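Appendix C: a fully annotated inverse folding record. The material below is reproduced so that readers can follow the format used throughout the book. The structure is listed first as tokens, followed by the designed sequence.
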């Protein structure tokens, strides 16, 4: 369940204040009260989103564990079964990441922030690639690691902007390139090599993002 769709976003990075009805506007934005979302700049919204979600790194941790398990399964179960797990098992990564975030006290899905809604939409659009994966599984299953790796890597690209993160840029590029290199010329071993490369990429990306969080 991986997909990156193009989102056209036009954001005006300036303060837009919406005055509520009545004469108590000064009380509404007075000291000690949260600033209304409508009067926050894009930079403020981004900082709040990053602080509450910790750049969503638990999702990468869950993904690293999943792809490592896929690489190990190749030696334990038939090829066709592993390929089916590639298609149907991807859906566990996001909920597992959300659960891990809760255990760590991290709000992976930010509420009350429009950028949290945007992040959720980016993640949700991945479901539309499922028919593509099913078609590849039916007609050209040997290309599954290449296809899922390329599309999966591309889906991380918007998060590089959303989280002001070079770590996510690295994950997007390294996942796509490793799938392209290992899923093509080394197709015979791609069910082992590609998930190992993706798991390593996610692990390195997690360390990078944790470093970014400490600097935040």
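Designed amino acids, in order:
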């Amino acid at each position: 369940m991986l997909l990156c769709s193009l989102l056209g976003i036009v954001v005006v990075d300036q303060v837009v204040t919406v005055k509520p009805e009545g004469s108590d506007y000064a009380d509404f934005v007075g000291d000690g009260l949260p600033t209304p979302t409508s009067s926050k700049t894009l930079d403020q919204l981004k900082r709040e989103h990053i602080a509450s979600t910790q750049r969503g790194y638990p999702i990468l941790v869950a993904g690293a564990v999943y792809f490592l398990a896929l690489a190990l399964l190749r030696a334990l179960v038939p090829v066709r079964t592993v390929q089916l797990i590639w298609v149907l098992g991807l859906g566990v990564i996001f909920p597992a990441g959300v659960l891990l975030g809760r255990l760590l006290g991290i709000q992976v899905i930010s509420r009350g922030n429009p950028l949290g809604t945007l992040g959720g939409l980016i993640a949700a659009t991945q479901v539309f690639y499922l028919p593509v994966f099913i078609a590849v599984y039916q007609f050209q299953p040997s290309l599954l690691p290449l296809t899922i790796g390329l599309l999966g890597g591309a889906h991380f690209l918007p998060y590089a902007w959303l989280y002001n993160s070079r770590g996510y840029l690295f994950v997007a590029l390294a996942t796509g390139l490793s799938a392209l290199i290992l899923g093509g010329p080394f197709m015979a071993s791609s069910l082992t090599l590609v998930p190992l490369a993706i798991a390593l990429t996610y692990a390195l990306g997690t360390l990078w993002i944790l470093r970014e969080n400490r600097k935040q």
